[in-house]
Write a structure and sequence with these properties.
- The structure is a single chain.
- By secondary structure, the protein is mostly helical.
- Helix content is about 65%, strand content about 10%.
- The chain is built from ten helices and three strands, in the order βββαααααααααα.
- It has helices at about 30-35, 45-70, 75-85, 90-100, 105-115, 125-130, 135-145, 150-165, 175-185, 190-200, and strands spanning about 5-10, 15-20, 20-25.
- The chain has a three-stranded antiparallel sheet.
- The termini are far apart.
- The model has no long low-confidence stretch (mean pLDDT about 90).
Length: about 200
């Protein structure tokens, strides 16, 4: 395999191209240690050592550092490592490592995500956000079965009504239609909206 290019991407880091394709990023000292020189070939064994030892160790440490600052989904962590240009096989191994110690857990992430936002967002909104973050349908459904109920949905609707300063007891036709439409577009079920507004008017 030929080192066709070594491209600086920082003061001490270089993007290494093998056979014309970007392969990985190494520090200057790592290049010297592994004998990486532009225009020279490297053995399959050398490439494997770079991936399984140098890059894997660095990706593992990077993954743990990323998780220190905030909880992340598995896909979110993979994407951050991709941005650092780690090869996919190295990313898979690094993520498997942190997962094995429980540092990353999409089911737990989904539960915490719902708990922290269920008082202001509909189930549909939360599902869409979790799916966008790469959480599986199975983990989403499981988290909702644990953390979300009809009562929680009604509390969220009540909070939005207070925030928008809408009082169902005094609101009339146009205002009620507007708030029904707004809540429906946010993904709240019609029955839940009707129940909250009905309870307000009955308790007036």
């Amino acid at each position: 395999m030929m080192v066709t290019r070594t491209e600086p991407c920082g003061k001490t880091r270089y993007r290494i191209y093998l056979d014309g394709e970007p392969a990985f990023i190494l520090y200057k000292g790592e290049m010297k240690k592994m004998g990486i020189r532009e225009g020279e070939s490297i053995s399959a064994g050398t490439e494997e050592t770079i991936r399984s030892e140098i890059l894997y160790r660095r990706a593992r440490l990077r993954a743990m550092h990323l998780l220190e600052g905030m909880d992340r989904t598995e896909e979110g962590l993979c994407e951050k490592l991709r941005q650092s240009e780690y090869p996919e096989d190295v990313i898979e191994k690094a993520v498997a490592y942190v997962r094995s110690f429980g540092y990353i857990n999409d089911a737990r992430y989904a539960e915490n995500f719902i708990l922290s936002r269920r008082d202001s967002k509909s189930r549909r909104e939360l599902e869409a956000l979790l799916a966008k973050k790469g959480v599986s349908r199975e983990n989403i459904d499981q988290a909702f079965s644990i953390c979300y109920s009809e009562e929680e949905e009604q509390k969220a609707i009540q909070k939005i009504l207070r925030k928008k300063r809408v009082d169902p007891k005094t609101a009339e036709g146009d205002e009620l239609r507007k708030i029904y439409g707004y809540l429906a577009r946010k993904g709240f079920r019609y029955d839940a909206i009707r129940q909250v507004i009905q309870n307000h008017t009955e308790n007036a």
